[in-house]
Design a protein that fits this description.
Length: about 525
């Protein structure tokens, strides 16, 4: 008997989190000083390109290889060790060097292969009298790293990928007389020029140049030295700069000139982030936020006065997730969520564990993992994940008062590694590792609507070379499921799976030969061969 078969592929979309709001399934592992961690309060976490996980603590830098911790402290190597054991921040440049920032303003570059530290705060004494603490670290392409100092200076280091050598230079932005200059942001554009946004304006270091260029301001009504700049957004042939006056200054790469985009806000533009191909979300320091359509120039403002869901007009930072939704940190405890598709603002405030605010001030951080879970630690605490199906934040085994709670929901730090594991340091100290796993079993019913058992009693099951699943049931039918486990249909006497009289053969065994033909052995009707024609 010759049967031709055809396959209809049906695609489906699976939600990351089911609508029941159940907790993600995972196992937990706790690490503490008893396991080799140098100190229980972890301030920074990072996984490098080789898979090692690094933890910055109050008492040393820790490397974890999946089994053991290795600790680096001052005195670890007399000539190339940390000068301060507290590590607050960890970054990795494109050459694989780790950059560490301590609370006293020491900035170290760490070669993970040679296990060698270089303190760049101390390395600037030969090029500048500015020995003030380092405040920020910015890593760019080709081993270029910039450090900003408390006195308004900038240190540029260009590392060598194959040796310990580096080039170092110091740049001082022009101040306003005796007024202190604050460096707010440093960015590198598509032409490899460096833009320095400061409290006294914008400075530019063009590629190949050795001297900073002070950028003249197009608005003659306000002097350049009086206007601070906070934010940078590059797209196409333009760069937008957010100023302290509430206006956006648009720079054109072609004519190297500026235009001013006027807004109705009076406070500083502190962040500009793209929501989609046309719209940007723009944060202000004291006037809420607005959505700016780059094509039409239309602006839609969201303030406390016209939206009761906004608790304050004082914005701090914004994160745009993979789905194009914005998460805003404000000066009020909690987190603000903006859905641009519905133009809806929602404020989330989670219940938190009691803590002494004079001892610990919970900070805001947010990130997504490889499985598209979004994790957020709102200002004030309440670490949680976003349930997109229910449009709300969910506690993660940490709801205060819940008898099933496993740990506090106020964290020092957290991150998700390349494998999708979640790492957390709570106020109870130590590290919690959550390893997620999918459902171990999934029920696949050939006939979900059946109330009897014969229609779903499987007598033969086989997966072919295309990952299609063939299932023969007790009632004599043969079902075909595609590689996504979507039911294609029943095998028919005419060889199709969608129309015609259903094939009935009481199949007990199924196999496929090297030519791709399907063979089925039946009870009482012999052997059937299905050829792909």
């Amino acid at each position: 008997m010759k049967l031709a078969f055809r396959v209809l592929i049906i695609l489906y979309f699976a939600l990351i989190i089911n609508q029941s709001g159940a907790q993600p399934k995972c196992t937990f592992t706790h690490y503490s000083v008893e396991d080799g961690l140098s100190e229980g309060e972890v301030l920074a976490m990072h996984q490098d390109r080789n898979g090692f996980i690094w933890f910055g603590t109050f008492d040393g830098l820790n490397r974890f290889d999946g089994v053991n911790f290795k600790v680096y402290k001052s005195g670890f190597n007399r000539y190339s060790s940390l000068t301060n054991n507290r590590v607050d921040k960890i970054q990795e440049d494109d050459y694989g060097y780790l950059w560490l920032l301590s609370n006293n303003g020491d900035a170290h570059r760490f070669d993970t292969q040679k296990e060698k530290f270089i303190n760049f705060k101390g390395s600037t004494n030969q090029i500048s009298k500015d020995q003030s603490p380092i405040q920020q670290i910015f890593c760019f392409s080709n081993g270029e790293t910039w450090l900003t100092t408390e006195n308004g200076g900038c240190v540029r280091i260009i590392s060598n990928k194959f040796s310990d050598n580096f080039e170092i230079a110091y740049f001082q932005t022009e101040g306003n007389g005796h007024q202190k200059t604050n460096i707010n942001l440093i960015r590198k554009d598509k032409e490899n020029s460096i833009w320095i946004l400061a409290s006294n304006g914008i400075s530019l270091l063009r590629q190949g140049q050795k001297k900073l260029e002070k950028i003249g301001q197009p608005d003659n009504a306000v002097t350049q030295t009086s206007l601070p700049f906070y934010s940078f957004f590059e797209f196409g042939d333009k760069i937008w700069f957010g100023s302290g006056s509430g206006d956006i200054f648009s720079y054109d790469f072609a004519d190297r000139g500026f235009e001013i985009i006027k807004t109705s806000v009076k406070s500083g533009i502190i962040a500009i982030k793209p929501l989609n191909q046309r719209e940007q979300i723009v944060l202000t320091s004291n006037d809420g936020f607005f959505i700016l359509n780059r094509t039409t120039g239309e602006k839609t403002y969201f303030r406390k006065e016209n939206n009761p869901s906004i608790p304050t007009n004082k914005m701090i930072s914004v994160y745009v997730d993979k789905f194009g939704e914005a998460w805003i940190e404000t000066s009020v405890e909690g987190v603000l969520h903006f859905d641009p598709f519905k133009e809806k603002v929602t404020f989330f405030k989670m219940k938190t564990d009691k803590t002494n605010p004079n001892v610990f001030l919970p900070n805001f951080f947010i990130f997504e993992d490889k499985n598209d879970y979004l994790w957020v630690h709102p200002l004030g605490g309440g670490f949680s994940y976003y349930n997109r199906a229910l449009k709300k934040l969910e506690y993660f085994y940490n709801e205060p008062g819940n008898p099933l709670r496993l740990f506090p929901n106020i964290l020092h730090s957290a991150f998700s590694d390349q494998q999708g594991n979640l790492w957390m340091c709570t106020i109870s100290r130590g590290i919690e590792k959550a390893t997620f796993y999918p459902d171990q079993f999934k029920l696949l019913q050939p006939n979900p609507s059946s109330i009897g058992h014969a229609e779903n009693e499987v007598r033969a099951v086989f997966e072919d070379k295309n990952k299609f699943l063939w299932i023969a049931t007790r009632d004599g039918l043969v079902y075909l499921f595609d590689s996504t486990k979507t039911n294609v249909g029943n095998l028919r006497e005419n060889g199709s799976f969608t129309s015609g009289e259903k094939f009935n053969g009481l199949i007990y065994t199924i196999m496929q030969d090297r030519k791709g033909n399907i063979w089925m052995g039946s009870k009482g009707r012999g052997v059937f061969k299905l050829e792909n024609v």
